[in-house]
Amino acid sequence: MESIEQINYIKAPIHTVYNTLTTQEGLGAIWTKKLKVKHEVGYINEFDFDEEYLTKMKIIALQNNRKIEWECIFSDAEWKGTRVIFELSEKGNTTMILLKHSDWKAKTDYLRWCSYNWAMFLFSLKMHCEAIHQNE
């Protein structure tokens, strides 16, 4: 099995990053505005990227300010069955986020393209959370 791993450092409190990744308002600001999201294990988040299908992610784990885990139950064929995990830690005024997108069946061009897009996602998360923190 193949995986994508990306890391970023965000100059914002860990709770700001966690809340952005677990709320409709937060994910709507950084990923897609067309979504249905709840902060509840077992809930199936839905993301609309203007494709012919919705991407559906079942929430497997929520550890407050530490970890978020999703399982892709419906999306592009290569995403189905994969897992997305966000691991958070904080040191001083900086939150470290480790994003893992695992259980890919093969290393494909689509996986490589998704790796790039996850990096852009983390950049968007960083810009959003740091802007919030500056305005607090």
TrEMBL record:
<protein>
    <submittedName>
        <fullName>SRPBCC domain-containing protein</fullName>
    </submittedName>
</protein>
<comment type="similarity">
    <text>Belongs to the AHA1 family.</text>
</comment>
<dbReference type="InterPro" id="IPR023393">
    <property type="entry name" value="START-like_dom_sf"/>
</dbReference>
<feature type="domain" description="Activator of Hsp90 ATPase homologue 1/2-like C-terminal">
    <location>
        <begin position="11"/>
        <end position="127"/>
    </location>
</feature>
<dbReference type="InterPro" id="IPR013538">
    <property type="entry name" value="ASHA1/2-like_C"/>
</dbReference>
<dbReference type="Pfam" id="PF08327">
    <property type="entry name" value="AHSA1"/>
</dbReference>
